[in-house]
């Protein structure tokens, strides 16, 4: 069994409601998002 580090390449974003500065409500469905190296 080869040893392997657990590297998270993508993160799951659950469904959520985001409010924009102009008062709009945006429903963002659950999706996978790539994790950028910062």
Question: What would you note in describing this structure?
Answer:
With 38 residues, the chain is mainly beta. Helix content is 0%, strand content 42%. A two-stranded antiparallel ribbon has the order 1-4. A two-stranded antiparallel sheet has the order 2-3.
Terminal CA distance: 31 Å
Quaternary structure annotation: single chain
Portion of residues in beta strands equals 35-45%
Strands, total number: 4
List low-confidence stretches.
Answer: none
Q: Which sheet architecture does the biggest sheet show?
A: 2 strands, antiparallel
Tally of alpha and pi helices: 0
The best one-word shape is: elongated
Spatially, the strands of the biggest sheet line up as 1-4
What is the gyration radius calculated from CA atoms? 16 Å
What is the share of helical residues? under 10%
Helices and strands, in N-to-C order?
EEEE
Helix- and strand-based class?
mainly beta
* Mean of pLDDT: 83
Which keywords apply here?
38 residues, mainly beta, two-stranded antiparallel ribbon, 4 strands, 42% strand
């Amino acid at each position: 069994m080869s040893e392997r580090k657990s590297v998270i390449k993508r993160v799951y974003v659950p469904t959520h409601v985001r409010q924009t500065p102009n008062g709009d409500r945006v429903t963002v469905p659950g999706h996978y998002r790539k994790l950028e190296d910062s």
